[in-house]
Amino acid sequence: MATKKMTTAELNMRQSKTDWDKLDALEDAEITQQAMKDGTLLSDEQLSAMKPISAFSELQALVKLGRPPKANPKQSTTLRLDAEVLEFFKSQGKGWQTKVNSVLHEYVKERQR
Questions:
Q1: Which of 106, 101, 110, 95 shows the shortest CA–CA distance to 81?
Q2: CB 32 within 8 A of CB 39
Q3: 3-state SS track over 42-103
Q4: What torsion, rounded to 10 degrees, do the Cα atoms 9, 12, 13, 15 define?
Q5: What is the pTM of this model?
Q6: Is residue 9 within 8 Å of 103, Cβ to Cβ?
Q7: In angstroms, rounded to a whole number, what is the distance separating the alpha carbons of residues 45 and 75?
């Protein structure tokens, strides 16, 4: 089977193949059954004995909160766009700004060739 090469913008605009309704409908019994298979099922006693990491001062130094810093972080800017362009990207839903960035990134790559 041939692999189709896709741009970042094309990948970002694809619909999720996850059946979220089915996932949301999973019953606790099914989740418990899977946890038993995985060996990750904890008893009520084990759960009640758990303590937050803040209870272990020696471990707190190992925990880094937040996202790790990126090598090439994005920069904030103000950009004026035509209303129809802005409306199109916003209609794509969550992540529309990332899609704008991907389209602009592809444009830059094409022009640098």
A1: 101
A2: no
A3: CCHHHHHHCCCHHHCHHHHCCCCCCCCCCCCCCCCCCCCCCHHHHHHHHHCCCCHHHHHHHH
A4: 160
A5: 0.42
A6: yes
A7: 48
Task: Give, for all 113 residues of the chain, the pLDDT tens digit.
Answer: 566 777 777 777 777 777 778 777 777 788 888 888 988 888 899 999 999 888 888 887 777 778 888 888 889 999 999 999 999 999 999 999 999 999 999 999 999 98
Short-list 71, 53, 51, 50, CA closest to 62? 53
Residue 62 is which amino acid? L
Question: What's the rounded Cα separation, in Å, for the pair 8 and 107?
Answer: 11
Distances (CA, A) of 42 to 35, 37, 45, 46, 62: 8, 12, 8, 6, 25
